[in-house]
UniProtKB/TrEMBL annotation:
Residues 13-27 have a biased composition (Polar residues). Keywords: Oxidoreductase. This is General stress protein 39. InterPro entries: NAD(P)-bd_dom_sf, Sc_DH/Rdtase_CS, SDR_fam. Residues 1-38 are annotated as: Disordered. PROSITE patterns: ADH_SHORT. SUPFAM superfamilies: NAD(P)-binding Rossmann-fold domains. It comes from Sarcina ventriculi.
Amino acid sequence: MSIDENFPKSFPKQHQNKQPGSESQMNPMPIYDAPEYHNDGKRLKGKVAVITGGDSGIGRAISLAFAREGAKVCIVYKDEHEDANKTKELVDKEGADCLLISGDIGCEDFCNDCINQVMNKYKSIDILINNAAEQHTVNSLEELTKEQWERTFKTNIFGPFYLTKAALPHLKKGSSIINTVSIVAYKGHEQLIDYSVTKGGLVAFTRSLAKGLASKGIRVNAVAPGPIWTPLIPASFDEQKVSKFGSTNIMGRAGQPVELAQAYVFLASQGASYITGEVIHVNGGEMVET
């Protein structure tokens, strides 16, 4: 039996009223770990990784995978303290050092303070994962308010900009920046207009930074998830859509966070030393024009 046969193909009806959602309230819980994905190669031994949205979903899976590869993990999250403490507990069990920092990445002062906290504790930063995001559905452009547009951009675009700018003076040759984009950056989404635009912007941000930082030996890449079972899903869509989430994919199911984590490990490692400005698509076989 293959590992994916154990992954759910449908979900109970559910909805959460707060972004970016809480993993502890999801049914079933996202799968962030599986024995088949374990690797003791210590590909990131001694590295310091800053992971936004590292408390849950894809971020939790990345945090755990990085810890297993020997990295020190700094998890930046908004206010989902229960999820963050659970992830820290998982990282601690791997014998890895873990720092939790709570706040709004849409605020430049917080991002500067975040990087200062990491430097004060670890004295270096080797990997920056811009993973945190929010999304809100609308039925039409007319329904999309100025306030929602600005809020989505603050988290999804301004946050990565502020954090990358603050971290850049501390990055060095061999460092890596990885942005979480999305399949909707390429295909669009009729109900996620502002979210799709920000993810498309992150693709351009990735490619532009890659060109600008190549001479410094700093690589910049991205991962574009397809339908992945994370807290953003019940926090964004109605119960009916959640219950069918991912079912139209050619693999017949949504992906699980654990299925993305190794893409981030690879891009952060020396195994990807000749890869920059690229996007790895992890979407269950959805063909997109890149």
